Structure formats: C-alpha cells, structure tokens
C-alpha cells in the first residue's frame, strides 16, 4: 500500500503510518494538506494518513474541512506520542544557535525551552522534518530545527536537546483515509464512528440531535462545530461516537436523520488501542 502524508520524509505523520500499517508500507510525502488530499485523484497513493487532532493544540481544522470536501472514508486511526528534539548540524553546539525553525504548532509546544533561550529567533516552516532538511542543507551551525528523532537520523542531523516539549502528555491522533469505493464493509470489531451533521435553526435542535445517542447509551467522544463555506453563521457539527456490540447504532442514526437537515457518515473503524493517563500508556 502507498500511503501519502503531509510533510517531508521523517515527519511525525510518516512515523504514524508505519506504526499503524507496519514498516513495509510505502510512504509518499506531500508538501501541503491540499496536495495530500489530491494524492488519490492523482494516482500518487492508495490511501492517506492525516493528523486529526492534537491533545494540546486541538483539532486540525484544515483537515476536517478537506475531509468534508472530499469523498474519502475514515477507515482507521492511530495515536502517537509527540516528542520534540532540537536538531542541528553535525558538530554544532547549543551555545551557537541563533535561529530555530519548525512547524508553528511545534514551536508553540516548546515555550519553556524558548524561555530559557530568549535570544533565539523562531522561524515558522511548513513541517517539522522539512525544517531539519533545510537546516542541514544550509550547513549553518547557528540554525537548528525542532522535529522527531527520526528526522535527525534521516538527514544526518545532531540532536542538541531531547524532549523539549512543554507537556509530556502530547499526543496526536491520525486518521487513515481511503476512497469510498475501497471502504470495507463494517468491521465487526469497529467501535467508533465519525460523522457530520447540519442542524435546523430552531430551539433545541442540538439537544434533539444528540438525544438518540444518549437514549441508547452510546458514548459521545467528541463534538465540534465548523462554519459552512458560503453560508455565513451556519455550522456543521462533527461527532465521534463510541459504541459496543449490542448497542443499536443504526437505530440512533435513523432517528438522528429525522432530527437534522443532513447527516453524513465519514467513517466507522476500530479506535486506537491505547488510552493515556498521567504519562502512562494503559492497554
């Protein structure tokens, strides 16, 4: 399987693809999220892996918008611990650093480290691994990047400081997206569904749309609203619903459709197998 991801080789998304699908998967780097979502129509990949949300920064809203615009199916997910490292040129010393490059989210997640080095200039880049690639290309020992350990290994960089993220409880959830035509029948081990809905403008509309899940003991894991393009001050809601064997998910969806203007199932899949608490992975 060829799986596209956003970023340069060594990005967190590439590592997540291998974690989900195994080291034999062929990964295909794409420069931007827009390019990532074109990978299937351009026959560059068979599936794509996109970051959906981060435990600290929240949802990756551009991915949600592109998912709605596409006809892709969310078929799986993986959660990965995010560890940031300061990576410089071989032989560089941390005392020489003057500028640090990385994705804006990665820079923002290392505030305490930057507070200890107030003279450093931050430079925003398209992705973490790409910033390492650029720093190593310039061979400027005063420049460094923040990225995964994997990026240092790929580009021959030197880790000058490890685990510089502010919060160790830093995780990103990635979703595996495939064409609707390639989506499998509902996995008997699936226990999570992602869907989107639009509500009528009337009092209690949100309450009545969620009631079918509560009445059947279905676990609402996440709800988030996003503006509808071209329709100012109107919103669609994204829901993640957890369910177990024996719970009547189909009946809840049927009732939901009667209470809303539009319902679209974006995926039904097995949830990531680990929960996180106090820095401990609980299987």
Give an overview of the whole structure.
With 283 residues, the chain is an alpha+beta fold. It has three domains: 2-81 and 170-182, Periplasmic binding protein-like II (D-Maltodextrin-Binding Protein, domain 2, 3-Layer(aba) Sandwich); 85-161, D-Maltodextrin-Binding Protein, domain 2; 192-269, Alpha-Beta Plaits (2-Layer Sandwich). It contains nine helices and 17 strands. It has helices at 12-21, 33-38, 61-69, 104-108, 111-115, 128-138, 149-155, 205-215, 249-259; strands spanning 2-6, 26-30, 47-54, 58-59, 72-81, 85-88, 99-102, 121-124, 143-147, 158-161, 171-179, 192-198, 219-228, 231-242, 262-269, 275-277, 280-282. The strands form four sheets. Strands 1, 2, 3, 4, 5 and 11 form a six-stranded mixed beta sheet that branches. Strands 8-7-9-6-10 form a five-stranded mixed beta sheet. The chain has a four-stranded antiparallel beta sheet with strand order 13-14-12-15, covered by helices on one side. Strand 13 (219-228) and strand 14 (231-242) form a beta hairpin. Helix 8 (205-215) runs antiparallel to helix 9. The longest helix is centred in the middle third of the chain and has 11 residues, at 128-138. The protein is elongated and about 65 Å long.
Describe the structure in brief:
Helix content is 27%, strand content 36%. The protein is built from 9 helices and 17 strands.
């Amino acid at each position: 399987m060829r799986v596209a991801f956003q970023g340069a080789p060594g990005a967190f998304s590439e590592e997540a693809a291998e974690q989900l699908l195994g080291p034999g998967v062929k990964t295909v780097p794409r420069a931007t999220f827009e390019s990532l979502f074109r990978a299937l129509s351009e026959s560059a990949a068979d599936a794509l892996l996109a970051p959906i949300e981060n435990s600290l920064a929240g949802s990756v809203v551009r991915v949600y918008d592109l998912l709605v615009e596409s006809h892709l199916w969310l078929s799986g997910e993986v959660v990965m611990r995010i560890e940031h490292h300061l990576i410089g040129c071989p032989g560089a010393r941390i005392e020489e650093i003057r500028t640090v490059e990385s994705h804006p989210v990665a820079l923002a997640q290392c505030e305490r480290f930057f507070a200890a080095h107030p003279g450093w200039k931050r430079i925003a880049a398209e992705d973490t691994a790409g910033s390492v690639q650029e720093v190593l290309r310039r061979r400027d020992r005063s420049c460094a990047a923040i990225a995964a350990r994997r990026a240092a290994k790929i580009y021959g960089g030197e880790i000058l400081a490890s685990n510089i993220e502010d919060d160790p409880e830093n995780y990103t959830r990635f979703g595996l997206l495939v064409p609707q035509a390639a989506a499998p029948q509902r996995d008997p081990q699936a226990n999570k569904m992602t869907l989107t809905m639009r509500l009528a403008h009337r009092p209690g509309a949100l309450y009545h749309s969620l009631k079918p899940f509560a009445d059947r003991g279905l676990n609402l894991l996440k709800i988030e609203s996003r503006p509808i393009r071209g329709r100012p001050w109107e919103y669609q809601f994204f829901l993640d619903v957890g369910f177990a064997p024996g719970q009547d998910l189909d009946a809840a969806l049927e009732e939901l459709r009667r209470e809303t203007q539009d319902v679209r199932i974006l995926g039904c899949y097995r949830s990531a197998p680990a929960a996180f608490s106090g820095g401990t992975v609980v299987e």
